[in-house]
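Lab notebook, bench 4. Still working through the backlog of constructs that have no structural model yet. Next entry is a single chain of 725 residues. Request: give me the structure tokens for it.
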Amino acid sequence: MQVVELYISNQRVDLFKDESVSITDTILNAKDVAKVFTSFSQQFSLPANSKNNFIFKHYYNWDIVGGFDARIRVSAILKLNGVDYKIGKVKLNSVSMKDNKAYSYKVVFYGDTITLNDILGEDKLANLDSLDAENIIYNANNIKDLLQLDPSVSGNDLITPLISHTKQLYYNSASHSTNGDGNLYYHGGTVDYHGVLYSDLKYAIRIHRIIQAIETQYTSIVFSTDFFNTSNVAYHGLFMWLHRKSGAVGNGDQVETFPNSVTGWTSGASGVWSSITSAATLTVNSNFQDYSNSGATGTLLQLALVTSDTVNAYQVEVFKNGQSVSVGTYTGPKTLSSTSGGGDFGSTTQAAGEWTVVITVSVAIAFTQINWTVRNNAPSDPPDTDLFQLTSTFIADDSFEFIVKLQTPDIKIIDLLTGLFKMFNLIAYVKQDGSIYVDTLDSFYATATTYDITKYIDVKTSSVNVALPYREIKFKYDGLKTFLAAQYEQLQVQEWGTEYYSTSTNLDGGVYEVKLPFEHMLFERLANLSDVSGQTLTTVQYGFCVNDNQQSYIGKPILFYPILKTGGATTSISFLPTTTSREQLTSYNVASNSVSLSAVTNTANINFGNMVNEYTGLTNFTGTLYNNYYNNYISNLFLESSRVNQVTAYLPLSIILNYTLADIFVINGKQFRINSLKINLTNNKSQIELITTSESPTVFSEVLAENGDYIFSEDNQEFIIMESS
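Model written out:
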């Protein structure tokens, strides 16, 4: 008989002597192949004695204030013979009363992994505050720079992909097109302003950066690096498009105001100013405090904003050394100042330090000048005798601080994680050090230890069940509504990126779906339309995020691989910083469903089925999600010989304390995977559900028959094992 101990918040509780404590452990139930996080739980009763009453602070007495809070789960440990067995949480569900006295506490012990749902709750990506470190001004220069940033370099976590939210892009070297048109051909020496306008594009963030933000936000969550690592290209190369609203960035009420740090300062009179001429922050030299004419009584620090717009309001906030010293809303031209006696910036006789001006607008406002002026304030001095000036010309337009967390797709964190786990067929469990082990099912199974449990089998009863009650499993994305993806389904009578797995059309059962909560785009490699045959291809591949009516479309979160096209063979494109200017770009990030554009067999991609590759037009990119992460498990379940076998065993403590669900159990020389394991901790009686492997026998009964005779009941598919006489 095992000694079972339960500790709640490091306090040992008393158990009923006859209480049967069982734990059910499962990794991937064959009937629920989309199950993401492992979990185990056990409900049992605790006597309402003085010790347990103290621990639960007499919860049954509602007059007690500040007692045990049953609304939350508290830390708990199950021990076997003094050795830690399971670490998790306990929740108090109820107290049973007899004769108006507390009799027992009903509690549930939960495995740690399930607490991910409790920790994350309903929180969305917009709650990940550490993503603020990635915030960036949304303007033409930054869009262009990140469009040319190499995403294969670790740390380049924010890029611009060639995905248009509204405008259709094309390439035609025989046409000058019209201004504002989406023709990417760059016409040397012409004045036609067509191509991709910077505001047609949005930023994208690396998925790994989001995983890091989750760990930062929720300090109790630490994922292992078995799968979530920078060397795993299929994962680390994956990005999410920052597409919160349909159409342009900041549409509607997503971004109500546009904060702009004033930049591009030009020096006036020389003297105490630093030489900063382009940064957002101006530095006043410490020598300023010593500069004054005879008879000076103070100094004047002045900010003048010159604009002809007298209708639209704007907010001005001034910072010194990072601290706000003035904030106000104005219309028309405005002068802010400070003297030794006070003013808009306070009493600023000592102006040495770093000064920043931030203007916030909701509509475009042009400032012809923004001037900083420092001068002696002595009335006896000639006007502007001691003038020092820096000037900036500034247009407060729809350039604004792109707050990454607020531009993330509207999805819960737990749903994103669930989607990633389904995508790569990942499993998770809490390790002894508290970190969460995450890896593919195949990699997890590769860590298996083999245990021969033949001599522990109770041969009196067992059963054999169908491994998978489905005739087909469908792997797909939830979002397939973007223009080209929808068109593909209409023309091919098949959903883009989908895999349908079955071994026969005659199998009994329904269709099971593994569905990812993401949009799956079909990208387009552009041909040069000047060649009517369509055979002259460019190196440009882009995404078109509109619906089948070619209207701006929001859809589900979009995941993809950005790939930098650069070098002499790269087709140059026309980039428009404004509607009246253009630049030639010879490098840019194309969007892809594959980690590589080259025609290499087995190139990893995020299609479930083996689709035609958008860039090469070939079907040799067989490294699909299904082939890479699901095939071994699913194909085994669909074998004619596959069974789910249920046996009873009395496992020794050496196995109970050390097994993992990756392990192999051997019965009479035949190998089986563990589907689930229910252990009565008081007597070691274990109900084990085993899945046959390719090394398993065709007929499970033959394995057990070596220990005795059997009778097969066709009605309930049960083997009744009789010990040999």
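Notes after review: The longest strand covers residues 83-98. The two ends are 29 Å apart (CA to CA). Flag for follow-up if needed.
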